Amino acid sequence: MIPARRAGVDVGGTKCLGVVLDEHDRVVAEAQVPTPKGADAVIDAVVEVVEQLGGHDTLGIGAPGLVTRSGVLRAAPNLVDVQEFAVAALVGARLGERVEVDNDATCAAVAEWRLGAARGLDDFVMVTLGTGVGGGVVAGGRLVRGANGFCGEIGHMVVDPDGPPCPCGGHGCWERYASGAGLGWLGRRAVADGRLARSVELAGGDVAAVRGEEVRTAALEGDTDALAVVDEFARWVALGLANITNLIDPKAFVLGGGLAASPELYLPPIRNWFGRLLYSPHLRPHPELRFAELGPRAGAVGAALLHDVH
Amino acid sequence: MIPARRAGVDVGGTKCLGVVLDEHDRVVAEAQVPTPKGADAVIDAVVEVVEQLGGHDTLGIGAPGLVTRSGVLRAAPNLVDVQEFAVAALVGARLGERVEVDNDATCAAVAEWRLGAARGLDDFVMVTLGTGVGGGVVAGGRLVRGANGFCGEIGHMVVDPDGPPCPCGGHGCWERYASGAGLGWLGRRAVADGRLARSVELAGGDVAAVRGEEVRTAALEGDTDALAVVDEFARWVALGLANITNLIDPKAFVLGGGLAASPELYLPPIRNWFGRLLYSPHLRPHPELRFAELGPRAGAVGAALLHDVH
Fold it and tell me: Do A153 and B75 touch (CB under 8 A)?
């Protein structure tokens, strides 16, 4: 039986967002507080959000970074002063209940699977294209968590060992190209090459201030240089999707994160490159490319569903 | 209840190898015939092997290439004049029974999972390093087949879009580097660079005849140039393993195929590079690197087990 009030909290770099789902999967409460610095303060913030949400029967939490199967956040590049953070145990002790915790992109995958773009699918991969790239995998009708719980760290798949350095210590990680940060990097590279005047203008004339946003805006205006950078970006996105297809053969990808806000701009070139980069494209149905439906609440909604799928 | 006689046939590029497993998973019969050209002849060959094996209760077949979930071999680069080959239906009609068919590397994964190096594991990836690179995936205690049955085509994961062309039409596919063919290519590149004199000597002085085998032999003799090529090869193998780890977080890899015959040569440098290329290596248990235990019969043994896992 589905509990009447399932609460989920998405701990993000800037805010902790909470929701409550009723037994019909409707969002019946929502609350948020800024994400503070330090593990103790984050626990306080999560508890505060949960209290604002009113009563709940179950609680799940999404957190950014490597989350173990027992709910320890090993590393969180986007949280300040947080590491080896036993989220499930600490929040559970404060509230006196069992708390499920998983990676935020995995939570988004669960939300899209149960209530969004991937409803009814047994095999799909969620790809969150934001500042970085995250992922979640459903295969054979089940959420894949991995031996340690680290399934879906797809942003650090190396797609060019001679590529630009990544803060993770590697070179040429997929998210150096296929994220919002990657779009900005490709843009600044084009500027250095004497292109992309409109995007530089949008950045107030400051070459170093060109980010993904200035490329996107110029491309939406029809600027040819910016559209070429978007096409290059789309090729990198598609290359990673093709690699994932080779490994686990999903029925569909669900693309989410900040870049999912402009599917009309990104989807056609991604689909074009995906068809060209797929292995044996003439011998297989091409995995569908869908855009996420649940928007910025996907992480919190998926967290609320964690008790159902773990 | 486990049937008393489970038959499996591995259809390879040069031979069709069949085995029968009894209810204790012992190989109690074995037979082989050369693989002929053309789909009809291959069916005849499989039926002949099955007849040579004596009676059986169930039959599974492993085939090289893209095998659909209903047992159609879509494309088989290593079989002559074979495409869109309905193996399960055709053999099933000839023998009057239901036949399970899967990709040969997937069969090897099943064999190692049930009877070999991956016994008891819920999350591992089989990687066959032969002329090409194949794979099979077990996640959450279940064989992952993929939406179409094409899970594990890991050899065509692109690891350098500016890399050498692949017969598949892509560039820089993993198997261009991490296979027996890749080891030979890295070797010939070293020769062109003025190195690897001993391997050229082993190839009868013919630079173009240097293959993986000549690199391996020279390296086993302690030749420094050949060991450097093996190290480069190991780095490419490890890069792909790290990418797969980021996607599905296995507990272990099982390395099989022809290259698994010399683990003492390949394992130390692969392990070294794997530890360096893994994402966040200090925050996680490193997936174990194991070598396959079942040898050249792995595909046939796994085929015999297909009815148990599909």
Answer: no
Q: Which of B154, B242, B283 sits opposite A246 (nearest CB)?
A: B154
pLDDT of residue B76: 83
A292 contacts A255 by C-beta, under 8 angstroms: yes
Cα of B302 to nearest chain A Cα, Å:
19
Q: Are residues A142 and A271 in the same domain?
A: yes
Per-residue pLDDT reduced to its tens digit, A180-204: 999 999 999 999 999 999 999 999 9
Q: Are residues B139 and B164 in the same domain?
A: yes
| Same domain assignment for residues A97 and A128 | no
In a domain, A1, yes or no: no
Q: Which residues of A touch B146 (CB under 8 A)?
A: 123, 139, 248-250
The enclosing domain of B204 has a CATH number of 3.30.420.40
Domain residue limits at A188: 121-292
Does A225 reside within a domain?
yes
Chain B residues touching A289 at Cβ < 8 A: none
What are B30-55's pLDDT values in tens digits?
999 999 999 999 999 999 999 999 99
User: Which chain B residues are closer than 8 Å to A170 by Cβ?
Assistant: 277, 279
Distance between A171 CA and the closest CA of chain B, angstroms: 9
Q: Which of A70, A51, A72, A39 is nearest to A9 (CA)?
A: A51
A247 plus A210 within the same structural domain? yes
Statement to judge: residues A175 and A265 lie in one domain: yes
Q: Which two tokens stand for residue B306?
A: 């297909």
Q: Which residues of A touch B278 (CB under 8 A)?
A: none
> Based on the structure, what is the number of domains in chain A?
2
B66 to A144: CB separation less than 8 angstroms, yes or no = no
The residue behind tokens 């492993």 is B62
CB contact under 8 A, B168 and A239: no
- Amino acid identity of residue B172, one-letter, is G
State the CB neighbour count (10 A cutoff) for residue B278.
22
Mean per-residue pLDDT, B182-211: 96
In terms of phi and psi (left: phi > 0; alpha: psi -120 to 50; beta: otherwise), the region of A141 is left
Q: Do both A259 and A174 map to the same domain?
A: yes
User: Positive or negative, the Cα torsion across B110, B111, B112, B116?
Assistant: positive
Residue B22 lies in a domain: yes
Contact by Cβ (8 Å): B248, B212? no
Q: What is the pTM of this model?
A: 0.96
Query: Dihedral sign, CA of B6, B7, B11, B12?
Result: positive
List the single residue in A with minimal CA-CA distance to B153: A246
Mark yes or no for CB contact B279/A123 under 8 Å: no
Domain assignment present for residue A88? The answer is: yes
Q: Are residues A26 and A78 in the same domain?
A: yes
